[in-house]
């Protein structure tokens, strides 16, 4: 388990973790993404808790979780958007509550890293539904 809190000369509040493997390219685009799991998916708690660090321009694909998700932004600037709604700019100290089954995406701004603590209640392993990437065209419309 990599508990390094430094990435590209930046000191983060929580461990950055490991770079997301290439096999996860369906889930992320636009740059490198790092994960550190405090409570893994396979835990008996059924509530994974992890730190995700997005490099500038990186983001996850549109996706939905079967349980309630909470995101706590701990560093930088980024974006959150639910399907059919306007994007919401995020900054360190912001939080997002995502209702079960809501299609959404989140990630870093073009010019900033973003780190988030996130957990999903009642989320068995491999239960997240992953959809299409947030296209570069769509993403580049953001300020």
TrEMBL record:
The organism's place on the tree of life at top rank: Bacteria
Record domain Cupin type-2: where: 52-112
Stored CDD domains: cupin_HNL-like
Pfam families per the UniProt record, alphabetical: Cupin_2
UniProt-listed PANTHER family: BLL4564 PROTEIN (PTHR43698:SF1), RIBD C-TERMINAL DOMAIN CONTAINING PROTEIN (PTHR43698)
Protein's name according to its UniProt entry: Cupin domain-containing protein
């Amino acid at each position: 388990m990599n508990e390094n809190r430094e990435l590209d000369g930046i000191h983060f509040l929580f461990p950055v973790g490991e770079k997301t493997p290439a096999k996860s390219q369906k889930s992320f685009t636009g740059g490198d993404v790092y994960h550190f799991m405090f409570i893994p998916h396979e835990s008996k708690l059924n509530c994974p808790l992890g730190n995700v660090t997005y490099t500038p321009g990186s983001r996850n694909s549109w996706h939905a979780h079967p349980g309630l998700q909470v995101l706590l932004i701990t560093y930088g600037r980024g974006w959150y958007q639910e399907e059919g709604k306007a994007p919401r700019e995020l900054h360190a100290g912001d939080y997002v509550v995502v209702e079960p089954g809501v299609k959404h995406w989140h990630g870093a701004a073009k010019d900033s890293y973003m780190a988030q603590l996130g957990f999903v209640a009642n989320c068995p392993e491999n239960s997240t539904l992953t959809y299409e990437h947030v296209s570069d065209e769509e993403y580049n419309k953001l300020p």
